[in-house]
């Protein structure tokens, strides 16, 4: 059998039973593809199920407040995807009468949908012969054909797109695309794949040349930036606190957080106290909730975070109840802290 037919044969026997595979409706397929970008199925599945329960149709998602969407997305990261999801839902629901474009080119016009997602939807829902190329596909193709062109370069993107196009199964493109993605996810895994049971092992270049652990090739990322966050957990006379919405572009846009003081490097409590006193002159003491900074790792930056409890001897009219802060969409770093302080 050919490469593509072997993958389809394997897929029909080994595929996982996932809810978005039981339909050709583009809405749940689009939703799953957006969620599963850089997210494992085990992590993304509960989110998918909650979204489908809250927003059964694209119109339901379009009608929902953005804060509700962000709250349900909380913990998945890459919050720009959730914002784009909401924008696209509104465009489809309000400008396209709830009907998704039925071509690769048409899908690319929607916010947050790139080459991979457009190819997946067009092939699975409309049987358009578009190859998908995601992390799993890069790995399968690089290993099987022995391609060492770095996948995160312009040359690599072009090379693998051409290769994916040349080997795809046109007549069963939807099944084939799901097959190669699934194969990369559960058989041709990044670390320690079981090559002895692989249906492709007879002709796999990486296996025969002992390069399974070194393919695909990916150039080193840019240097990680360290940032130093000091959150002020205000507690007024009634025990209420403050949350502020992050409006600037960048990480966590639209989410809520405690008042933030960011510095260029490590500082001590006296330094932070002086900054607090500029805003709240009557405060004479603060104390840290965590003894050492919490290191929250994002793709290109590490956040060294300390939460400072700031007691006030008066009420703040704009403060919110500690019990209500769980209703706001917040970054997972803040959510984890909230869970701890409510149990404290």
Features:
344 residues, alpha+beta, Endonuclease III, domain 1, Nucleoside Triphosphate Pyrophosphohydrolase, 2 domains, 5-stranded mixed sheet, two-stranded antiparallel ribbon, 44% helix, globular, EC 3.2.2.31, DNA damage, 4Fe-4S
Commentary on this structure:
The protein has 344 residues and is of the alpha+beta class. It folds into two domains: 3-208, Hypothetical protein, domain 2 (Endonuclease III, domain 1), CATH 1.10.340.30; 225-343, Alpha-Beta Complex (Nucleoside Triphosphate Pyrophosphohydrolase), CATH 3.90.79. The protein is 44% helix and 10% strand. It contains 14 helices and seven strands. It has helices at 3-14, 26-35, 41-54, 58-63, 66-73, 79-95, 104-108, 115-126, 135-145, 154-167, 173-186, 205-208, 269-279, 332-343, and strands at residues 225-235, 244-245, 256-257, 260-263, 287-288, 294-297, 301-311. Strands 1, 4, 5, 6 and 7 form a five-stranded mixed sheet that branches. A two-stranded antiparallel sheet has the order 2-3. The longest helix is centred in the N-terminal third of the chain and has 17 residues, at 79-95. It is globular, with a radius of gyration of 24 Å.
CATH topology of the largest domain: Endonuclease III, domain 1
Helical proportion, percent range: 40-55%
**What is the ordering of alpha helices and beta strands?**
HHHHHHHHHHHHEEEEHEEEH
How many individual helices? 14
Task: Work out the radius of gyration.
Answer: 24 Å
Mean pLDDT: 94
Total beta strands: 7
Q: What overall form do the CA principal axes indicate?
A: globular
Strand content: 5-15%
Low-confidence stretches: none
Looking at the overall shape, the CATH architecture of the largest domain is Orthogonal Bundle
Largest sheet: 5 strands, mixed
